[in-house]
Write a structure and sequence with these properties.
The chain is mostly loops. It contains no helices and 3 strands. This is Variable lymphocyte receptor B cassette.
Amino acid sequence: DELTALSAGVFDSLTQLTELYLHYNQLTTLPYGVFDRQVHLQELGLYNNKLTALPDGVFHKLPNLRFTHVWLNTNSWD
């Protein structure tokens, strides 16, 4: 509920991560490359934040991410 920003590289050491839930926070943006080392990531929850856009290619290094398991609803999209 308290996250307002993520630092680039914040998840770099978590290379075996398969699920990441960041919902119900105050995130307004994601740093470019923030998920680049999470190649095993399969589920990503980003709903109920204040995201207005996503960086180009934010998911391009995530071959295992199933887009049926990416939750982005209830954000403030432009």
